[in-house]
Amino acid sequence: MFDKILIANRGEIALRVQRACREMGIATVAVHSTADEDAMHVRLADESVCIGPPSATDSYLNIPSLLAACEITGAEAVHPGYGFLSENARFAEILREHEIAFIGPTPEHIKVMGDKIAAKQTVAALGIPVVPGSDGAIHDEAEAQKVAEDIGYPVLIKASAGGGGRGMQIVRSRSDLGLALSTARAEALAAFGDDAIYMEKFLDKPRHIEFQIVADGKGNAIHLGERDCSLQRRHQKVLEEALSPALNAAERERLGGVVASAMADLGYTGVGTIEFLFEDGEFYFIEMNTRLQVEHPITEMLTGIDLVQEQIRIADGAGLTLAQDEVSFAGHAIECRINAENPKTFTPSPGLVIAYHPPGGLGVRVDSGVYAGYKIPPYYDSLIGKLIVFGKNRTECLMRLRRSLDEFVIEGVETTIPLFQSLLTQPDIINGEYDIHWLEEFLAEA
Ligand code: MV4
């Protein structure tokens, strides 16, 4: 097993990884920008290295600085967390060249899933259901017109290098097709330096349901059920729950079995998430994420499996020790993303935290790097913590979530806590009846 791991991240996820390392007897190296000298992930690490100025490009994304930090400290492996370099195939490749373990999948798997056209073709060939659309890239308007006529309007044009909702164009009729194609292509080229585009049937009111998988790179893979992440604003998830209130056990077992065997056949290594749109009882693959995700704790709360410890064991070459029939989903879990933002306008609210009192008690987990006296820097994303609540059923979970939100004290900065308190009064939320558009519609009415 590794003796020392460098954590190439900040905030709550850096702490999350440190906790897993400590329980495994592994020493930790924190890296930080000059803006993060007083951050909790630096204070709690065994060692820390300053890797650059506040701008993430010059610090958390600076590969030469990270390599130097590994060299100085003798770290044998790097955990990238989420965001930053977590899905950068080149970073994984460079670490491999330096004989430092990357705690994640191979550069080849990161690369194929980062190319949305290649990802879709790859998973379709492995038996995963995909959204009807073009078979690969769209080359010209004549081809686009033919595909659109085949699948029927409305259609969606997506950038192959996009993902996460960036660079999409909805087309409602033949007359809008030409302009949409050139706009999509120009935007893709400007945003990603790659103008490859593809077309899909536009799904009107789907839910976003994603399956968690764990694979060992030796042909073994299991699934840990799904998360419902339909409640989003501007492609940012706000609240996630597991399991999805929209799925029954038979649907879960069927698709879970398909994704696990697909990942086994692919020879995938580590944790991953297969994202689907779910509409009228059918699943349609959209993307795969090759990283640990922000919302992974709800899966941990349900299954009792420490996903970061699994990542570390797998990166060290261990095979899967868990069998699918040892995984059970007893109860319900919900995560609220606590952002330092105005809860109505979503304007960032960095600054000094004057008071901080997180909730506690049975079934309550708070992952956060905040403490009283901490000054939230303005340079990074506004996620300052996650409240994750477990209950033996969804009703208990909702009651406990309400109680926990009421207990939570954060003074000095604005947070999204009041938004969650108001969401929990909504019958659609209480009943689990929402799709990917519900939250934006709710916010527009409020
Ligand atoms: C779609 C779609 C409807 N039909 N694809 C947005 C983010 C990216 N992951 C894929 N996205 C979508 N793809 C088809 N064929 C609607 C969305 C979408 C969405 C998806 C998940 C969660 C929130 C969303 C909000 C708007 C649009």
Comma- or semicolon-separated keywords:
alpha+beta; Dna Ligase, domain 1; 15 helices; single chain; D-amino Acid Aminotransferase, Chain A, domain 1; 3 domains; 20 strands; Rossmann fold; 446 residues; five-stranded parallel β-sheet; binds ligand MV4; 34% helix
List the helices and strands and how they pair.
Blueprint: E1 4-7, H1 11-23, E2 27-33, H2 40-43, E3 47-52, H3 63-73, E4 77-79, H4 89-97, E5 101-102, H5 107-114, H6 116-125, H7 141-151, E6 155-163, E7 166-171, H8 177-192, E8 197-201, E9 207-216, E10 221-233, E11 236-242, H9 249-266, E12 269-279, E13 282-289, H10 296-303, H11 307-315, E14 332-339, E15 351-352, E16 355-357, E17 364-368, E18 375-376, E19 383-391, H12 394-407, E20 409-411, H13 417-423, H14 427-430, H15 438-445
Helix pairs in contact: 4-5
